[in-house]
């Protein structure tokens, strides 16, 4: 069964988020950083293995436009604008936000990486 299509889509530039509202009254606020690190683009999903996105803590959304009747194209202020967020994928991101975000934080920690674009980790090997 396909996911519902949002009845409300609001780009909130000040809070760097996207609000999705559905006919059943559910509303989800998806932060730009979360959407950016889970972009469906080849750059992020990689070719067989996803590429961990780092330093995206302060990324913002500058645009959201429909892509046909099945997706949304998001444009981020770091220049990223590839990848189409299908209605199904946006709904997955919305309802799985807590677990996906924790998985991302866990991946960053394991890699010794940071959300902060001004931080770089150097590993010293004895």
- Given as residue ranges, the uncertain stretches (5+ residues, pLDDT < 50) are none
Shape: globular
How much beta, percentage-wise? Answer: 15-25%
Please tell me the overall pLDDT: 92
Order of helices and strands: EEEHHEEEHH
Task: Please tally the β strands and state the result.
Answer: 6
Class computed from helices, strands and strand pairing: alpha+beta
Largest sheet: 3 strands, antiparallel
Radius of gyration: 15 Å
Spatial strand sequence of the major β-sheet: 1-2-3
The CATH architecture name reads: 2-Layer Sandwich
CATH-defined topology: NE0471 N-terminal domain-like
How much helix is in the residues?
25-40%
What is the number of independent domains?
Answer: 1
**End-to-end separation:** 54 Å
Number of helices: 4
Assigned CATH class: Alpha Beta
Can you walk through the features of this model?
There is one protein chain. The chain has one domain (8-111): NE0471 N-terminal domain-like (2-Layer Sandwich). The N and C termini lie far apart (54 Å). The model has no long low-confidence stretch (mean pLDDT 92). It is built from 4 helices and 6 strands. The chain has helices at residues 32-37, 42-45, 87-95, 97-111; strands at 8-12, 17-21, 27-31, 61-67, 71-76, 84-86. The strands form 2 sheets. A 3-stranded antiparallel sheet has the order 1-2-3. Helices cover 27% and strands 25% of the residues.
